[in-house]
Structure formats: C-alpha cells, structure tokens
Amino acid sequence: MTNGRGPVANGALTPRGERTRQKLLAATRDVVSDRGYDQMTIDDIVTAAGVAHGTFYLYFRSKEDVFVGIAHDVADEIKQAAEEAPPEPLSRPDRIRYGTANYFRTYMKYRRLTGEFVAQASRIPEINERVMDIRHAFARVVRARLERDMGNPEGFDVDIASYAMTGMVSWFAFDWLFSEAFPFDETKFDEVVETLSRIWYAAEQYGPDADLMHDASREALLAAATPADREGPAG
C-alpha cells in the first residue's frame, strides 16, 4: 500500500525538505491536469518541478505514490469546503445554497484532477478511499443539517436520507463535470446550485409527515397494486 511518502519523507522533514516535497506535489498536479495520470511519467514530474530523478525518489516511491499524495491534499480541501459552516444568520434555504455552492466551487477548481481520481479509483485502493472520504464527509454535513432542521422523527432514518441526498449531489457533480453525455458549462454554475438547492429544500419540506409517508397511504398503494405487481411475473 502506498502512503504518498518516500524514504526521506517518512521521517521528520526540514523546512527545505517540505518545500521540495510540495514542489513535487504541485508539479504532479499540473502534469496530471495537463496529460492525465496514465500518460504522466516521472520524467514529466521532475522536469516540471526542476529537480533531479534521485530527488523524486527521496520523497515518493512511484508515480502512483505521488498521485496518492495529491489525492490526499485535494480530498482534504473538498472536505473542508463541504464542512465549512455558513455565516449566520442565514435562512434554511440559503444555508443549503451556501453548502452546495461551496461543494461545487471546490470540485470545479480541481475538475481535471478529480476526474482523474474517479477514473483511477477502481485501480488504486487509496484513491478510492479518498473519493469515498469526500462522500462520507458531505454525508456527515447533510446529516447534521437534517438533524438541525428536522430533528430525528420516528419513522424517518436520517442516515438513509443523508446518503440519498449526498448521492444526488455527488452523482450530479460527476455527470456535469466529467460525463460527455452532459457537457460541462461553467456559465450554468448559478443555475446548477439553485436547482439542486431547491430540490434539496423541497425534500426537507416533504419530510416524514407527508401524505405518502402515512400508513394509510402505504396501504392504499399496496391495495392498488395487482397480484402480479406484488408477486412478480408468473413463471
């Protein structure tokens, strides 16, 4: 398992050593953003950083190792943006807008990098962990917001709701920022934030007390289903 640190960096770094390590990380960000992870070479990194090959291997063991290093840094920044408390006082809808805008703004800042993280997540376990860290951090924020605004009412699972709403935002972010089927258009940022925030607010307003959630409504829905609907198609 990689840890984003080579033989020297596993010990305490001098200020000069930390500057060199950060120079390598910054160079890697630039190269990955420009060429992608698969096309990136260590030659590219050391050339961009202006250091020797031997210096690279003092801090990182491989290109995967340094890639994991930048993933840690970017994931931390996205998580911090998601967890940033909105200024007070803000209305409930504006708190949702603030959090959604922060999340997307940071993702857009690292659009090429996060696209590469997602693309490599199935091949590099630590990259997948960082991608999931971002989702878990956002879900924690959503959970806290739901508990603040709605409490924890009987029959309504805040954990399920928090991950469902996180899924809505994170999968839309993936489709908007990385999918060719839904071309990215930065000019639609405000529209994206407003639309997702309205859906989110509407879901909170729906809550556990809406008519569809009542036992009587569930019974009516079941009664309206045909036996084939309930039992599945005949063999």
Explained architecture:
- This protein has 235 residues and is mainly alpha-helical.
- It has one domain: Tetracycline Repressor, domain 2 (Orthogonal Bundle).
- It contains eleven helices and no strands.
- The protein is elongated.
- The termini are far apart.
CATH class group: Mainly Alpha
> What form results from the Cα inertia axes?
elongated
Give the proportion of residues in helices: over 70%
Q: Can you count the beta strands? A: 0
| SS content category | mainly alpha
Proportion of residues in β-strands = under 5%
Query: What is the CATH topology?
Result: Tetracycline Repressor, domain 2
Succession of helices and strands: HHHHHHHHHHH
Report mean pLDDT, rounded to a whole number. Answer: 83
The second-level CATH architecture is: Orthogonal Bundle
Count of spatially separate domains? 1
| Radius of gyration, whole Å | 23 Å
Per CATH, the superfamily is: Tetracycline Repressor, domain 2
Number of helices: 11
**Unreliable runs, pLDDT <50, ≥5 residues?**
230-235
Major β-sheet profile = none
Distance between the termini: 49 Å
